[in-house]
Design brief:
By secondary structure, the protein is α+β, with helices and mostly antiparallel strands. The protein contains four helices and eleven strands. The longest helix is centred in the N-terminal third of the chain and has 19 residues, at 24-42. The termini are far apart. 35% of the residues are buried.
């Protein structure tokens, strides 16, 4: 039973941005894919968990980019699970080109009970024989969001193409929605190299997410509200 999942890949043109490279949403998609592949290999993928009315949902995610992978570039995608805690399951990711690390990431996953409509804290579904790796890409904790972004950024109506198998907005689609609210010139000027996301409330087809932004000492903070409730937080570091 492999504690670390490793796959050799190539940067698809469909996952590249205006620069001909993978940006935050492209890399986030690769990380999500690797989590799916590894979970399937461990016997804890969707097809197995759905029989227990369980579904993996992301609680927090961080992605740092040191160099954006170029279109057609070969890379090695790695992911592994850290030892589980009572609250969540942490998974790390790395993208390498040879010996060069292009990006690192981390996602805190939770188990959502679709029948009960809530997270199942303390439930461990890892198979017997799996030895989680006590190695984290980040020494610091996830960012504590308590900001008050006041500058209106834009509204986004959740579309049918944003919905995933769980019936709510796909994790990566939130990133794409916010990225699309800035021009190419703004992205080039800001040169963000890190994104951190906190998923607070699931968004559904037809709902309108009202995004606001604000500048802090750490970077640009974006908050998405639905009907007056915070649905998502994002932090872009330079």
């Amino acid at each position: 039973m492999e504690s670390k999942y490793i796959k050799n890949c190539e940067v698809p043109s469909s996952g590249c941005d205006y620069s001909g490279c993978m940006g935050f949403d492209g890399i986030a998609a690769q990380y999500m894919n690797s989590a799916t592949w590894h979970a399937d290999a461990l016997g804890i993928g969707f097809n197995v968990l759905e029989k227990q009315h369980l579904f993996w949902i992301a609680i927090r995610t961080r992605i740092d980019i040191f160099r954006k992978p170029r279109m057609g570039e070969s890379f090695t995608l790695e992911t592994w699970t850290e030892p589980p805690t009572h609250l969540a399951f942490d998974r790390d990711y790395t993208i390498r080109s040879g010996d060069e690390i292009l990006s690192i990431g981390k996602t805190q996953w939770g188990l959502y009970n679709m029948e009960l409509g809530k997270l199942e804290w303390g439930k461990n579904v890892y198979p017997e024989g799996l030895v989680p790796i006590a190695e984290s890409n980040f020494s610091e904790r996830f960012y504590r969001f308590n900001d008050e972004p006041t500058e209106f950024l834009g509204n986004y109506i959740v579309r049918s193409t944003d919905i995933d198998l769980g019936g709510h907005m796909n994790n990566v689609k939130y990133i794409t929605a916010v990225e699309g609210m800035f021009s190419v010139a703004e992205w080039e000027r800001n040169a963000f190299r890190s994104i951190e996301i906190m998923y607070k409330k699931a968004c559904f087809e037809g709902e309108t997410i009202e995004f606001a932004k604000g500048e802090t000492e750490v970077g640009m903070v974006v908050r998405g509200n639905v009907n007056g409730e915070t649905a998502i937080w994002m932090l872009f570091r330079r």
